[in-house]
Amino acid sequence: EGLDFFQASVDPDVVYMTAAVREDGTAEWAVEYRVRLDDDNATRAFESVQADIEDDPDSFTARFADGMARTVASAENATGREMALESVTVSAERQTFGQEYGVVTYRFTWTAFATTDGDRIRAGDALAELFLDEETTLEIAYPEGYEVASVQPRPSENRSSAVVWRGPIDFGADEPRVAVAPGAAGGSQVPLLAGVALVLVAVAGGAVLLARRRGTGEGAVDAAAAGATGTDGTGAATGTGTAADDGGEEPPEELLSNEERVIKLLDESGGRIKQQRIAEAFDWTDAKTSQVVGTLRDDDAVETFRIGRENVVTLPEESDLLDDDP
Fold first, then answer.
1. Could you tell me the pTM of the whole model?
2. In the chain, which residue ranges form alpha helices assigned H by DSSP?
3. Packing angle, helices 258-268 and 275-282, rounded to 10
4. pLDDT digits (tens, 9 = 90+) for 110-122
5. I want to staple 314 with a disulfide (CB 3.0 to 4.6 A). Which of 31, 101, 172, 318 is the partner?
6. What residue segments make up the domains of the chain, in order of their start?
7. Which DSSP string corresponds to 237-284?
8. CB burial class (10 A; 0-12, 13-18, 19+) of residue 134?
9. Do residues 248 and 235 lie in contact, with contact meaning Cβ atoms separated by under 8 Å?
10. DSSP classification of residue 302
11. Does domain 192-324 have CATH number 1.20.1250.20?
């Protein structure tokens, strides 16, 4: 409650909520309502709201604060911690996430959002039983130098200093939860022994190239850019590595490079996807998406072409099939 009020003014295509937790348990929040500007009606609607916000931001922040105050009060009662909602602001601007969006962002401070125990920070109990619909993403960020000690449920993505859940998710009574501590074992960073094992696999197998495409080893991705996994171009493991195609487990999402994540998304999408969809899936800017796709294209791991105004990214096999069509 208190997070959906803005839909009365503009129906957002994406809602992105970020809670950046500080060492004292206070969280700096940003709630972004992203409206896809893909037609004149959506563009005019956003521009109208943008003008209203610029003319009278206080009316928007007042309504948002009223809704969020109820949410904070409910969390306060549930956790037994004294909490406060402070410093609510609003802004509206155009941003690009694969395509152009109108973004209305509310920022505020939520005191005592998380708990602290020595040097450990625990967050999430204030959001117990929160529901994220398919358009909504929740990111809980933590201070640099900290690592994840435990997290529940399994996040959709582990980022550097953040965990991310993408809806639809119906959190349980004890969810979401994330505990972080300086140098905590089992954190989001690659454990030392795992890192050593990866190096040994690479050395034993002579793995200097990463080939994620099906079939031959042509078009492999340079391991220096994408990270070696010890596989050859056929998908079989080299050295002591184990291939996913042979029944081995895939590496955790947080251990994949950006290039590997794109290849995985392509595999899951049948070998072909719009570049815009890549940007949206990983919440990347156009520039970052183009850079990652460009690296893969330069290494012949993917191919690109245009359909109208859309850039399309394919695995080489998919492109070959198109070329073979009569």
1. 0.59
2. 40-55, 57-79, 192-205, 223-226, 258-268, 275-282, 286-298, 316-324
3. 120
4. 999 999 998 999 9
5. 318
6. 5-182, 192-324
7. B-TT---GGGTPPPPPGGGS-HHHHHHHHHHHTTTEEEHHHHHHHHT-
8. exposed
9. no
10. -
11. no
